[in-house]
Amino acid sequence: MDAEEAALRGTVSVNVMAPLVLLHRLLRGMLARRGGWATGRGNRYLERNGILPGAAAGDLRCAENIQLFLAEALTAELDGAPIDLLVLCPPVTMSNVAERSGYGPNLPGAQHPFKAGAQHCRRWGGSGLWP
């Protein structure tokens, strides 16, 4: 309840609106290319949360649940036309979300985003090579 409304709106913008806009822009191309690069193993998603309590944690949890429901619905809808769909909700990750939630830059146990992403990528058989 201590979080400013503008900060909560920013969290929703980053965690809900940005993925929806990217999905809208990318999905047609993903479907068109599915025969070229998709593994054919079907749609899949991975969800793992690492949210610690804080001023914006409730809003962030709500935004992540919306993402998860979207991923599940999209996976069901595309069941007959498999593409490789991977939705990541990494463990506690070093980001400004932690700082906005009141934890500062030194969040205990936080991983670099590329390390967290690479671990999930390798778990699904990818190379784990991130920028």
In short:
The chain has 131 residues and is an all-alpha fold. The protein has 4 helices and no strands.
Mind sketching the topology for me?
Elements: H1 5-37, H2 57-77, H3 96-100, H4 113-123
Helix pairs in contact: 1-2
Organism: Siccirubricoccus deserti
Protein name: SDR family NAD(P)-dependent oxidoreductase
The main β sheet shows up as: none
Spell the H/E element sequence. Answer: HHHH
Distance between the termini: 37 Å
Count of discrete domains: 1
Report the oligomer: single chain
**How many whole angstroms does the radius of gyration measure?**
16 Å
Query: Can you tell me the overall shape?
Result: globular
Number-wise, the strands total: 0
Percentage beta strand: under 5%
Protein name: SDR family NAD(P)-dependent oxidoreductase
Organism: Siccirubricoccus deserti
Structure description:
It comes from Siccirubricoccus deserti. With 131 residues, this protein is mainly alpha-helical. The chain has one domain. Helices cover 53% and strands 0% of the residues. The chain contains four helices and no strands. The termini are far apart. Mean pLDDT is 63; it is low at 42-52.
